[in-house]
Each structure stands twice: as structure tokens, then as C-alpha cells.
Amino acid sequence: MSKTTVIAFANNKGGSGKTTTCSNVGCAMAMQGKKVLMIDGDMQMNLTISFFDEERAHEYAEQGKNIYAAVKEEKDLSDFVAETGIEGLDIVPSSSLMSAIEFDLFAKWQREFVLRKCLERVRAKGYYDYILIDAPPTLGGWVMNIMCASDFVVIPVEASPWGLFGLANMFEFCNQAKGIAPRLDVLGIAITKADERKKYFKQTLETLKEMEGVTLFENYVRVDSAVEWAQDNSKPVVAFKKSSRSAGEYIQLTKEIIENANRKKCN
Question: What's the topology of domain 5-266?
Fold first, then answer.
């Protein structure tokens, strides 16, 4: 069994807090002494901008040091890794050219497994404890690639009236992916942007707890302006303001994700 655990953060619903959760979990893992590689799989490049200013992010996009170039050319992902400046935490940046990835994948042999092949050497080396992939809010061939390259999926869900919209489609897609990548497993649902004062938060919580066969992480992340300030400074909140409430919540969520992943890998 590979030492490296690959976790996708995915939800076909936009605004779920997916990228913010991915960046903070990755950073919190690194702060706990883990070696982590993040992959920005979204053309919006928000995960990349979580660690670099826009000018630097666009440099990576233009110079070909990004996930689009790696997948299009079916290259070893090791050559596309950039340092984030946070010890133990690296990233494969994204590019706005990712808008063409579906077209590029269509003509490839075994197109569902292109990303998995790009990751083979990285996993084989065992340098990273975790590889975290930020998926775009879609359910197409590229997200299927991400699923097939992953061991687990974390589904961030916004605690809002529209937060659960499309969740059934997300689970159906995960089941389709498991049909061709049996090792894939849904690690759990992470509630984000929670406001305990609002009635819909309790409704979201109750609805998710009633879903059969679905793990709901006990730790959730509440609304906190510190997250926005961190984003404005191109840093995850756990690095920008560790004393903030949301940073503490992301750190606890990260511990739970690690524990769940270890338990499932041992079963």
C-alpha cells in the first residue's frame, strides 16, 4: 500500500468552501509535520492564489509550470511542483487554460486515468504523506480523472439553504467513479460557512445526519472574517492568523480527516 494518501476536495456546487478547506487542511497538515503536495485542478486558480499573489500565479500559468501542461503532455508531475514558502507544503499550480482540459482529455487513451499516471512517480517516491487535489465545481471528465487518481473524497458543504443542492448528483458521480476506481472512498462531508444562529444551519446538520452511509465530520467551520482577510493576503487562515476561531476549527477538522483516512486505510 502506498505511503502517500491522495484526497480530493470536490463538490459540483460552487461556493461550498472547497478551495478554502483544501488550502487550510493542507497547511494544517504541514504544520503538524506532514509532507503535503497540493494540486490546483480548477481553472479559476483560487488554490494557487491562496499561496501566491496574482502576478506570480500568472507566471506559473504562462511558463507552463502548471497542472494543465502536465496533463496535456502526460508528464511526471514531479517536474511541475512549486514551493509555497510554507515548510513541508508544495503545490502544482493551475492555469486558465484548464478550460480546455475536457477537450484535451477526450482523445487520450484511457482518459480517466491520465492524472493517475502523472502521479505514479510522485506516489512511488513516497516523499509526500498527503496529496490534496482541489477539483473544479463540475462533474465532467476532468473531475472523473481526479476521482480515479484519489484514495478519498472530502465533500465540503456550505451550511446554507442552497448548500445541499446537487449533493445527490455528487454521490452518484462518486459511485460511478468507484465503478472504475474501486479504491476510491468518500471520507466524509465537511460543513463550512456555518452560522449557528441561523435556522438553516440546524436544518443542514439534521439532513446530513439522516443520510445513510454518509460520514459527517464532527468538526465544522463557522463564518469568520479572518478567512477573508487571509485570502486577501494570499495565505490560508491557519498560517495568516492561527489564533482565529476559524484557524482552530480547520486544525481540528484536519486532525479528524487524518484520523478517518488512517482508519479507512487500515481496514
Answer: Rossmann fold (3.40.50)
Helix, strand, coil % over all residues of the chain, rounded to 5: 50, 15, 35
- Three-class DSSP category at 223: coil
CB contact at 8 A, 192 and 253? no
Q: Pairing mode, if any, of strands 89-92 and 5-9? A: unpaired
Q: Are 36 and 26 in contact (CB under 8 A)?
A: yes
- Nearest by Cα to 51 from 10, 80, 20: 20
The C-alpha cell of 101 is what?
482540459
Q: What is the pTM of this model?
A: 0.95
pLDDT per position as a tens digit, 202-258: 888 888 888 888 899 999 999 899 999 999 999 999 999 999 999 999 999 999 999
Q: Give the model confidence (pLDDT) of 142-187 as tens digits.
A: 999 999 999 999 999 987 767 677 788 999 999 999 999 999 999 9
